[in-house]
């Protein structure tokens, strides 16, 4: 009763929006007590049954789900919306309250420090490392038994992880190979994302003493130790490296707006703004935000090519016309001349967004349609559902890169496509990810034809923070005759 009295403003404001019936104490939390695969359907039903601005309660948290793209754009670009939602606190155990799950002065300071490494000039400087890592990947793929199906994500995620360590972290190849626990971190990351998502969606796991009794907690604790050691090792290497760099060089490069001569870790150290534990968490944040997302996107792209041989043929012809028959490095110029690759990647990011459901805290009342989002509530949005909303996409579940040809791009709803989110909290690594995915896929598809024993209709998806392919990424690679 006291809670109802204290929050009467929020309760009253909630009445502006339609939504499902609530249970005392739990609100609508039971809605998410389902298999992850069913969650996609549950959320869709909300929009079908209640329209495109819907309220639901996760215990005491009022969530307003906005599914109309124009309103979403206005909201996401509003500075009153630059606070991450309450569900991000379950990420904070592993990654702290900084770049990815934080808000306010700490988030903005860290984002500003890291930003030069994601500018155009910095991204250009990563070309040799990306290509070197993809060459190693190709060697690995050439060794795969002929005609055998395998989960290509497992190979690609090593490439993306090593690429991140050798660019954003500033490590050498040898240092990367010797980071303690790196392989375990790569392998255990997916189950740890699932723990975070389970806590976000299962009300009983949000009660700390209950969570502490679970095997998920033990898994998270073990993982937390691994990432601390990982962060410490990287900081140690970079502190040693920085001892040999002149002060003038450091000053000059710290001031540049776009620059890859210092790594993100160097910038964290030189800024003097982060203490050691915060730095370790931010290092893991950068690592985890980048290696899994790019590996998954590249794997989805290759799987879609296996499922859609006509698209693969078109893409192969484009790649071959630019790279020819030799296994040479892919440059920025090459990538600029691959418009079909761009269309395919956009379609992949439409169907399988990495940030599937996102949330912001409403810091002050914000007008929306004839009402307002009340301060203290959360605004949630499902990028997954927006990208498959039949109001904005014909035959939305079909894979069709032609949606993104210049003519159709002109015609489609501009705000209904937000794979990297929007506004001040949009993705920092967009150009990094796009280039790495294209380099990986361009060189694999030039050398191999990709097929699969399964088909697009067999693909089963679930949402655990990002969109997960339940059966993995099963492909068969066949070397093309013309490649050397
Ligand atoms: C295809 C790959 C990627 C996709 C689709 C993607 C997508 C996203 C999305 C949707 C967000 C918004 C999250 C939110 O609002 O809660 C985000 C945030 C972020 N991403 Fe990415 N991302 C990708 C790759 C990367 C890479 C390579 C990095 C490199 C470090 C990165 C770093 C970040 C960071 C730091 C944020 C937090 C931004 C902030 O809140 O200020 N991402 N990303």
From TrEMBL:
Needed co-factor(s): heme
A Pfam family of this chain: p450
Transmembrane regions listed in the UniProt entry: none
Subcellular location(s) per record: Endoplasmic reticulum membrane; Microsome membrane
InterPro entries the record matches: Cyt_P450 (IPR001128), Cyt_P450_E_grp-I (IPR002401), Cyt_P450_sf (IPR036396), Cytochrome_P450_Monoox (IPR050196)
Keyword Oxidoreductase among record annotations: yes
Annotated membrane topology: Peripheral membrane protein
Keywords, alphabetical: Endoplasmic reticulum, Heme, Iron, Membrane, Metal-binding, Microsome, Monooxygenase, Oxidoreductase, Signal
Principal subcellular localization: endoplasmic reticulum
The protein's role, per its UniProt record: May be involved in the metabolism of insect hormones and in the breakdown of synthetic insecticides.
Family the entry assigns: Belongs to the cytochrome P450 family.
Protein name: Cytochrome P450
Species lineage: Eukaryota, Metazoa, Ecdysozoa, Arthropoda, Hexapoda
């Amino acid at each position: 009763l006291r809670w109802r009295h204290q929050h009467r403003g929020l309760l009253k404001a909630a009445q502006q929006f339609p939504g499902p019936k609530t249970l005392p104490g739990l609100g609508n939390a039971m809605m998410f007590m389902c298999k992850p695969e069913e969650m996609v359907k549950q959320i869709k039903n909300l929009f079908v049954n209640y329209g495109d601005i819907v309220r639901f309660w996760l215990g005491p948290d009022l969530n307003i789900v906005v599914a109309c793209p124009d309103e979403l754009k206005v909201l996401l670009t509003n500075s009153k919306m630059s606070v991450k939602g309450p569900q991000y606190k379950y990420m904070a155990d592993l990654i702290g309250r900084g770049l990815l799950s934080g808000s306010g002065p700490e988030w903005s300071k860290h984002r500003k420090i890291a930003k030069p490494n994601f500018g155009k000039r910095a991204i250009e400087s990563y070309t040799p490392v990306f290509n070197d890592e993809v060459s190693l990947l190709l060697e690995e793929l050439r060794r795969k038994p002929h005609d055998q199906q395998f989960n290509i994500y497992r190979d690609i995620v090593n490439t993306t992880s090593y690429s991140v360590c050798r660019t954003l972290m500033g490590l050498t190849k040898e240092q990367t190979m010797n980071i303690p626990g790196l392989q375990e971190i790569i392998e255990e990351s997916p189950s740890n994302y699932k723990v975070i998502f389970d806590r976000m969606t299962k009300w009983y796991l949000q009660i700390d003493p209950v969570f502490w009794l679970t095997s998920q907690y033990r898994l998270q604790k073990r993982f937390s130790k691994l990432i601390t050691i990982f962060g410490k090792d990287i900081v140690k290497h970079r502190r040693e490296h920085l001892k040999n760099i002149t002060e003038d060089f450091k000053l000059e490069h710290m001031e540049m707006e776009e620059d890859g001569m210092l790594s993100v870790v160097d910038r964290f150290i030189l800024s003097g703004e982060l203490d050691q534990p915060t730095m370790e968490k931010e290092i893991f944040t950068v690592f985890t935000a980048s290696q899994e997302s790019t590996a998954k996107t590249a794997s989805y792209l290759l799987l879609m090519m296996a499922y859609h041989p006509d698209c693969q043929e078109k893409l192969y012809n484009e790649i071959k016309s630019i790279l020819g028959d030799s296994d040479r490095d892919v440059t920025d110029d090459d990538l600029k001349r691959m418009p079909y690759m761009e269309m395919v990647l956009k379609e992949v990011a439409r169907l399988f967004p990495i940030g599937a459901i996102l949330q912001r805290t409403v810091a002050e009342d914000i007008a929306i349609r004839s009402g307002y989002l009340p301060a203290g509530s959360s605004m949630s949005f499902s990028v997954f559902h927006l990208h498959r909303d039949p109001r904005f996409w014909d035959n939305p579940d079909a894979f069709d890169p032609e949606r993104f040809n210049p003519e159709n791009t002109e015609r489609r709803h501009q705000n209904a496509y937000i794979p990297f989110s929007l506004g001040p909290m949009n993705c920092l690594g967009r150009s990094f990810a796009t280039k790495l995915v294209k380099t990986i896929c361009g060189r694999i598809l030039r050398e191999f034809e990709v097929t699969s024993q399964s088909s697009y209709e067999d693909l089963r998806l679930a949402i655990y923070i990002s969109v997960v392919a339940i059966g993995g990424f099963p492909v068969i690679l066949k070397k093309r005759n013309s490649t050397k």
